[in-house]
Amino acid sequence: MSDERVRYSDADLQEFKAIIKEKIEKAERDLQLIRESFINDQNNGTDDTSPTFKAFEEGAETLSKEQNSILAGRQEKFVRDLKNALIRIENKTYGVCRVTGKLIPKERLLAVPHATLSIEAKNMQK
């Protein structure tokens, strides 16, 4: 058996690269929408509303901003993970499990293109 590491072919890597670039574009658009809704400081006209209802609305607004902040953080991590996958494609290490050294099945990479672990390795972590 040769010492050369198993890896995906250049054609496969180009296919994954196209998929990942498309996902990055969509994820960045989604992140922009999340950021815009987070920054949105429009007053919904509660100045003349009963103080009780105004308090409810302000509480809901705070919760919504917290949720958007959490979503933005998760989306930023997703974009970062996808960009890291592109680096692995350039290094020709994409699709190789970082624990087992075996190829991650193509079906898994199509579903989770930023995966760095095979299902086998994920199950070992439990």
UniProtKB/TrEMBL annotation:
The keyword Zinc applies. Residues 93-122 form the Zinc finger DksA/TraR C4-type domain. The keyword Iron does not apply. A zinc finger (dksA C4-type) spans 97-121. Keywords: Metal-binding, Zinc, Zinc-finger. InterPro entries: Znf_DskA_TraR. This is TraR/DksA C4-type zinc finger protein.
